[in-house]
C-alpha cells in the first residue's frame, strides 16, 4: 500500500485581503458577457457613434 502525500497551499503573504476583493477588470467583465449581449452592446455603441458623427458633420458645414 502506498502512502499518499496531501499538499496544502496557503495564501500569498504578500497579497493583502483587500487584493482579493478587487473589482474585476473591464476585460473580465466583457468576457463574462454572452455573445448575443456583446453583439447588442457593440451595435448600440456603433449606433451612438454614428449619431454623434452625423450631428457633428452638420455643424461643420
Salient structural properties:
single chain; 61 residues; mainly alpha; 3 helices; membrane; transmembrane
List the helices and strands and how they pair.
Elements lengths: L16 H4 L5 H7 L2 H25 L2
Describe this structure in words.
Keywords: Membrane, Transmembrane, Transmembrane helix. The chain crosses the membrane at residues 38-56. The protein is mainly alpha-helical. It has a domain at 34-61. Helices cover 59% and strands 0% of the residues. It has helices spanning 17-20, 26-32, 35-59. It is elongated, with a radius of gyration of 24 Å. It starts with 16 loop residues before the first helix and ends with a helix.
**Low-pLDDT runs:** none
From the structure provided, what is the oligomeric state, counting identical versus distinct chains?
A: single chain
- Tell me how many strands there are: 0
Rg to the nearest angstrom? Answer: 24 Å
Portion in beta strands: under 5%
Helix/strand order: HHH
Distance between the termini: 87 Å
Whole-number mean pLDDT:
80
- Helical fraction equals 55-70%
Main sheet record: none
Structural class: mainly alpha
Shape: elongated
Number of alpha- plus pi-helical segments:
3
Quick take:
The chain has 61 residues and is mainly α.
Amino acid at each position: 500500500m502506498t502512502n499518499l502525500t496531501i499538499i496544502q497551499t496557503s495564501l500569498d503573504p504578500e497579497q493583502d485581503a483587500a487584493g482579493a476583493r478587487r473589482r474585476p477588470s473591464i476585460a473580465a467583465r466583457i468576457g463574462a458577457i454572452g455573445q448575443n449581449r456583446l453583439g447588442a452592446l457593440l451595435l448600440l455603441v456603433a449606433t451612438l457613434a454614428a449619431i454623434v458623427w452625423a450631428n457633428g458633420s452638420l455643424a461643420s458645414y
